[in-house]
Every structure is written in structure tokens, then in C-alpha cells.
Design goal:
695 residues, Immunoglobulin-like, 7-stranded mixed beta barrel, 28 strands, 30% helix, elongated
Length: 695
């Protein structure tokens, strides 16, 4: 099209020559057209391949007796004063103009006034602009020369950012992004001058653009890492990974374990340099963070329980309470203490079964009056679990949390505390509920002589250890399994022998139905059995078929399972089991020699289908979340666990029947935590695969 325009322009100039009003040297135009023709390319293509724009040269005085400002005039005949409309319909060959000036016979004469001369000069300037603008590039990616026209009295100047372009050249600026260039051209002719503005898109440099993308990814990764790592450190911290960039860490005065920065305890603040190496697309960036390990006095404290017995009497019996007073302290973020309970009257004794014979003793507390212990309810009876056999201290808390996340009807509350008895530090303990019938715990009917009332049972094989004839427990046997009646209380004034007969018959009916593979839904609340099973199987709890297995039934209701309890010997932490049972694979609770009820239930396809359905409902948001809870809980008790194992130096050294060889070989607290976490990861993955094989 540009070639056509030049040809028409040339024809128009010749028309002017015929009118004795316009003289022009057409050598440049002919040259440009000839060059384009020889290369068999359009002017546009010629321009794209060259940074030099052909110079339009005219050494002959260019004059006109009228301004040419319309398509119609460019197509007029050679009659000087014709005002008829053009007949050509090929509008693509015409150059657009801004105004239309009517041509008359008088306008073909030589100007006779100054004003007419100015009008002619301005029209000529516009014609020059239209001519050169045809050569303006829309975009550039290298140095580029803008077009110019040589004629006496004519001046063309280009400006970019208020700076005149020398030699009409735009110097390409390599950037990582495309940029719009605002160009100003000033055209002077004779005594007239006009300003025109246009834009050119300077294309980005692709190499720089790609490099900028890489740099941006690195910067984003560093920002994410910095945001995730605290400047002041008071516990082990999980170091962030990145979805795109490979990140590795190193640190002085500490070490990295399983992508965890291990906190080292100091009496004073300690400066630690962390070096971060980031790798992406074979490029490497390094970054350094300066961290401060807080002094032990600045690390957040967990609540403290201080118990003082009368006359500093020792607590050494499971049967006999010792009277004393309890003070409960809580601490804010600045470790400023707040007294929650102050010298409250209470009784305390030992509790537990196997844990009763371990060096660090568990306790049961009975207040004179009901108290709230970090709960929104008030009770008299509370428990302090020692967790001596669990060298992470968190297995019970993890299981209670999973029960809570599954929305089981009653999940034991829990709060880690530091315990002092008669001024002596006892260690880290888990404060939790007593498993009993109350309105805020196991909420079933009690204190009635009704036969169909509320019942709380415990599946407890320890009765054999005590002796079936010597135990004080109120129990009955089904298939050799002792079921202890926790409620109704045998010594309660409302208790009747018929109540024992009722619940024993109920449990016998259940066993008979299960043995015969009959429908069981009229006897048990299946959903509670499934949730209890999920918690115990995830932790592969050794007691799930031995003791601390609870069932409850309300007046007129179905038998339910819960609460979950006693997980210190779980998830690989059992030295008394043979090696093939200690690992994270294989169903445990439903083994024939373990929990007989679940052995029978897992023979039902409908039970396994219901288990599969529930598992998949809670897998993503509940079950997998328990993995993250491991670090959250250990970080929460960081200072407390340090003091605990300063007092009880047992990690990697204490050996007893319950200590597995795998855990005995681990010498650090962090190693114990990683063992637990890895066990749960493998265990959950195995269960997920096996349960989803069910129909």
C-alpha cells in the first residue's frame, strides 16, 4: 500500500508541475520505489530489515498555490480549478488527512497575502508529516533511524523524553519489559511550525525478560522463606520448602534434622547464622539470615502446678489420698505469671497400672470443690499423666487431639504442665480428665436403681494380673474377657445386682450376634466404634485389645465406644512386642488375640464399607493433620521437655520391658520425635491403602 501511495504522490507532484504551482525533485521517491521493486518486497519489509530509513531528498524549491488536504484532491483531474467529486473508489490508496479545504480557481494563483502563505506552509507541513509517518515503525527491537526529508527551508526534529534525537536515531534500550516510547516531531517550514506526537513500542529484550522471571522467582522464594522463619527462635522450627525452587539450609551453632532447625539451649541469647542456597533452572542464589536463639529465661513457659501436702507428706499409695493444697500458674507471652488457682484444697494419690511402677509417677487429684482446669466446665477429679515411657511426651495428647477432631462424643481435655510437689520439680505432665460419668464427661444416666440405666464399662485384661478372686473390681467375663463395671458404682446406694445382670446379658447378646454374623445395628452405635477404631489403629495402640478400652450405654440407648485412652505405649513404642508387630504396617486392634469385638466386626463387609466411607470423609482434613500436630505440640513444650529430661535423663539410656530396641538406639529428643512422626506417616499411608481396598 505504501508503494501505491508513493506512486500517487509522485503523480500528484507531476500534476502540480503541470500547474506551474509546485516543483519537486522526485529522485528519492523513484529510488525508493525502484529499491522496493528490485527486492520484490514492500516498503514495510524493507524497513523491518534495515535500521536506516531512506532519505527523501528535494533540492528544488517546493511551492504550492494551495494546500492539499483531502483524498479527493489527490485524485482530481489535471484541470486546475476542478471542484467535482472524485470518481475513484479505491480509498486504500489514499493518505488520511486532517481537514478538507475546498479548491477554487482563485486558490491556484500565487498567494497574494501573508495569511495565505502561512496556510500554504502549514498545509505543506501536514503533507510532509503524512509522508514521513508512513515510515514510522510500530515497534522496535534495535537501534532505529526515523525518516527525514531534505528540502531547503524544511526542518524535521525528533524528541524522546525532551531530548533531541541525534541523527534521527532511537537508541534501543534493552529492558526486561516492553516500553511505550512517546515521540515528538517538530516540523518547521518557512515561517510555520507544527508539533506532532506519536508512539512506538520498544519490545522487551527476551533474554533479559527470561532472566527477570528467574530473578522474580528467586525473590519470591526468599520472601516466603523470610516470612516463615522467625528472627527470634525459642524452639525447633520447620524450615520452609518451596514449590518451584529447591532450597537447602546450613547453620552454625546448631544443626538441621529432617528440614528442622534444632534449637540449642543457652543461658544467654545466641546469634546464629543461617545460610540458604536456592536452585532453579541450574541457577543458584544464596541468602543469609541472622537468627537469635533466645536464652532459656526468655522461652515461653507452660502452666505450672504447685502442690504442697500437709506436713510435706509423701504421695506413695494408689489407695490412700494425701491432703494438700494446689496453686495453678499460667504465663503470658512475656512469662509474667497469673495465678488461676491459689492454695485450693485437694487430695492427691497415685494412679495407673503399669505406669505405677515407673520412676516418674502419675497422680490423681480430687478437689474439695469443683474446679476448672483450662476447661469451660468444673469437675472435682483430674488426672496428671507422667508419660514416662513416652520419650516424646506427646502420644496421649496427639490421640486426644485426633479424637477431638473426629468429634467423638467425649474427648479428654489436655494441657501440658510443669509439676512441683512440695517444692520439688517432678517434670512435664499432661493434665487431663478422669474417665468417669458426669454431665461434662461421659454424660449418661447414673445414681438410679433402674435396670436400664447408664453404664460405663472397661475391657480390662489386667484383672488377671490382680487375680480374678482377689480383685476389688466389679466385673463379669465374656469369652474370658473381663468387663469391669465403672458405673453404676458397686458401692453406690442405688446399685442393684440386677444392673450387673442386665449389662452382662446385653454384652453376651452382642458377642453372640457377632459370632453368628447377624445384624448388630440394634445393639451398637456403629459410628462410635468406627471412630474409636480409627484413632487406635492410627497409633497402633498396644492397649486397644488389653485395657483402658471403654464402652458406655445410656438409658434406652445403644452401646457406644469411648473415650480413647492410654497411648503412651503406642506407635512403635513397645519393647514387649515381637518385631513384626512393632512396625507401622498391619491391622492390630482387630487381631483375633486382641480386641475380640473388632475381630468379629471386621468380618462384616458392611462394617468395612462404613469404615472406608468414614475414613475417606476425614482423611484429608483430620487424619493427615495429625502429622502436623507432632511438631506443634513438641514446639509448645520446648522448655518444659528440656527441664523434664534434665531431671529424667533416660533418652537412649533407660532400658526396661517397655523400651523397644529401635527407640533405645535413639540418643536425642529430636530423634524420638522424628521416629514418632515417621511411624505415623507410614502407618497412615498403609491404612489408607488397605482400607480403600474394601468394597
Amino acid at each position: 500500500m505504501k508503494k501505491i501511495i508513493l506512486l500517487i504522490s509522485f503523480s500528484f507532484v507531476m500534476f502540480l508541475l503541470g500547474c506551474d504551482g509546485f516543483v519537486v525533485n522526485t529522485s528519492m521517491i523513484d529510488s525508493s520505489i525502484e529499491s522496493s521493486t528490485n527486492d520484490n518486497e514492500t516498503i514495510e519489509n524493507t524497513y523491518e530489515k534495515s535500521t536506516e530509513i531512506p532519505t527523501i531528498e528535494d533540492d528544488t524549491e517546493l511551492t504550492t498555490s494551495f494546500p492539499i488536504t483531502s483524498k479527493e484532491e489527490l485524485t482530481s483531474t489535471e484541470e486546475e480549478t476542478s471542484t467535482e467529486e472524485p470518481t475513484s473508489t479505491d480509498e486504500e490508496t489514499f493518505t488520511e488527512v486532517q481537514t478538507t479545504i475546498e479548491i477554487t480557481e482563485d486558490q491556484t494563483e500565487t498567494p497574494t497575502s501573508h495569511q495565505e502563505t502561512i496556510n500554504e506552509d502549514e498545509a505543506y507541513i501536514q503533507e510532509v508529516y503524512l509522508m514521513i509517518s508512513e515510515y514510522f515503525p510500530e515497534q522496535i527491537s534495535e537501534d532505529t533511524v526515523l525518516p527525514m526529508l531534505l528540502k531547503e527551508g524544511l526542518s524535521i526534529r525528533y524528541y524522546l523524553n525532551n531530548q533531541r534525537l541525534e541523527n534521527y536515531k532511537i537508541i534501543y534500550e534493552a529492558l526486561s519489559y516492553s516500553k511505550t516510547l512517546d515521540i515528538r516531531v517538530i516540523i518547521d517550514y518557512q515561517s510555520s511550525s507544527q508539533i506532532f506526537d506519536f508512539t512506538i513500542l520498544q519490545l522487551r529484550d527476551e533474554d533479559m525478560y527470561q532472566e527477570s522471571l528467574v530473578n522474580e522467582i528467586f525473590l519470591d522464594a526468599i520472601e516466603e522463606i523470610q516470612a516463615a522463619i522467625p528472627t527470634y527462635v525459642q524452639s525447633d522450627i520447620s524450615l520452609p520448602k518451596h514449590d518451584v525452587v529447591q532450597v537447602s539450609y546450613s547453620v552454625d551453632h546448631s544443626y538441621i534434622l529432617n528440614n528442622r532447625l534444632i534449637f540449642i539451649f543457652h543461658d544467654q541469647d545466641k546469634t546464629v547464622n543461617m545460610n540458604i542456597e536456592l536452585t532453579y533452572q541450574n541457577q543458584i542464589r544464596t541468602h543469609q539470615l541472622i537468627l537469635t536463639f533466645l536464652a532459656m529465661t526468655k522461652i515461653h513457659k507452660i502452666p505450672e502446678i504447685h502442690i504442697t501436702t500437709e506436713a510435706n507428706q509423701s504421695i506413695d499409695s494408689k489407695e490412700t489420698y494425701v491432703y494438700g493444697h494446689l496453686t495453678l500458674y499460667n504465663f503470658n507471652e512475656y512469662n509474667q505469671e497469673e495465678i488461676l488457682l491459689n492454695q485450693v484444697g485437694m487430695n492427691i494419690r497415685l494412679r495407673g497400672n503399669s505406669t505405677l511402677y515407673m520412676p516418674k509417677l502419675p497422680y490423681k487429684i480430687k478437689f474439695d470443690d469443683k474446679q476448672s482446669m483450662f476447661t469451660d466446665y468444673f469437675e472435682k477429679d483430674w488426672v496428671l499423666l507422667a508419660n514416662f515411657s513416652d520419650q516424646t511426651l506427646i502420644r496421649n495428647a496427639l490421640a486426644f487431639q485426633l479424637s477431638r477432631d473426629l468429634n467423638m462424643e467425649f474427648s479428654p481435655s489436655f494441657q501440658f504442665v510443669d509439676l512441683y510437689v512440695n517444692g520439688v520439680y517432678q517434670g512435664n505432665y499432661l493434665l487431663t480428665d478422669q474417665v468417669e460419668v458426669t454431665n461434662d464427661r461421659i454424660n449418661i444416666e447414673e445414681n438410679t436403681s433402674n435396670i436400664d440405666t447408664g453404664y460405663l464399662l472397661e475391657y480390662d485384661m489386667r484383672i488377671y494380673d490382680e487375680g480374678l478372686d482377689t480383685t476389688k473390681e466389679n466385673y463379669f467375663l465374656i469369652d474370658g474377657i473381663p468387663f469391669v463395671i465403672k458405673s453404676p458404682d458397686y458401692y453406690d446406694q442405688h446399685y442393684l445386682p440386677g444392673q450387673k445382670e442386665y449389662i452382662e446379658t446385653y454384652m453376651n447378646d452382642l458377642f453372640n450376634v457377632l459370632k453368628n454374623k447377624e445384624d448388630y445395628h440394634h445393639l451398637i452405635d456403629e459410628s462410635t466404634f468406627i471412630d474409636w477404631f480409627i484413632v487406635n489403629e492410627i497409633f497402633k495402640n498396644v492397649d486397644s485389645g488389653y485395657s483402658s478400652v471403654y464402652y458406655y450405654k445410656d438409658q434406652g440407648g445403644l452401646l457406644k465406644m469411648g473415650p480413647v485412652w492410654d497411648f503412651d505405649l503406642s506407635s512403635g513404642n513397645y519393647g514387649h512386642l515381637q518385631e513384626d508387630l512393632r512396625g507401622p504396617e498391619g491391622f492390630y486392634t482387630s487381631r483375633s488375640e486382641k480386641n475380640r469385638i473388632f475381630y468379629y466386626l471386621m468380618e462384616y463387609d458392611e462394617f468395612k464399607s462404613a469404615l472406608k466411607l468414614r475414613w475417606n470423609q476425614v482423611y484429608e482434613e483430620v487424619i493427615l493433620n495429625i502429622i502436623d500436630e507432632v511438631y506443634r505440640l513438641t514446639d509448645q513444650i520446648n522448655l518444659s521437655r528440656y527441664h523434664n529430661f534434665q531431671s529424667w535423663d533416660i533418652i537412649g539410656s533407660y532400658q526396661d520391658w517397655f523400651v523397644s530396641p529401635e527407640l533405645l538406639a535413639i540418643q536425642t529428643y529430636e530423634g524420638q520425635v522424628e521416629f514418632l512422626r515417621d511411624f505415623l506417616i507410614i502407618r497412615i499411608d498403609w491404612l489408607n491403602q488397605e482400607i480403600n481396598k474394601f468394597n
